[in-house]
Amino acid sequence: MSDPIKIRASIKGSEGEVRVLMPHPMETGLRKDPSGRIPPAHFIIQVSLSLNGRSVIEGALGTSVSANPLFAFQLKDVKAGDRVAVSWLDNTGQKGAAEAVFGAS
Amino acid sequence: MNRRIFLELFSKAGAVAPFIGSGLLRPGQALAVDFNRAPFEAKTAADVLRLTGTGGAEATRDIFLKVPEVAENGASVPIEIASNIPGTTRLMVIIDKNPLPLALQFNFGPEAVPRLQTRLRMAESSRLRIVATAAGKHYTVFRDVKVTVGGCGD
What we know:
heterodimer; A: 105 residues; mainly beta; Immunoglobulin-like; 4-stranded antiparallel beta sheet; 3-stranded antiparallel beta sheet; 7 strands; B: 154 residues; 6-stranded mixed beta sheet; 3 helices; 15% helix; 41% strand; globular
């Protein structure tokens, strides 16, 4: 199982910024490792963000996203105490999730 | 980021607010990404555009794209994109010369700013295309990025 997601939620003015790091190998299935084998594709295909339980951003990823994907997003009209949740799903069915609460600015 | 562009970006983002409630941006509209994986398996940018129905995207200056002109490490190329087009609901990134060019597609609900930062792999120097979708129309901008050390073999 992968390391836990790192998530940081901060308020800038009325906008909330969410920064997420999702530890994941993001194997393309196309590269050779040092022993000459080709590790099978293993990568995040879906990322979801919700604000107070309501879906606000939904993404689909391919293998061109770097290993340990790092994303930053902005949400509108965020208040201290609002709750943001992030989850991912990979091509093998593994999942990860984390949440954070926006602090007072 | 250049301060002027930064300020422009955020002042324009505020311009979307009047459309909320006018019916142009319907809160509660389905946000699910079209989880059709076929465009992610396409091997050319032309096929990605065809499979996503965005081949006719109109060139625009209203998509902000920040990416290094020369990327030293193709394994991790920082990119920041944002659409200033009112009602933008989707952003897509295509790296023409990668073996599988479609890097990502994100759908944004009305509570989200159509903007993101991430890091991408680039196998070699390539054109990078952004496609934004707003009210069913597609807009595009591209930039050529030179890669010193390719990022798909490590």
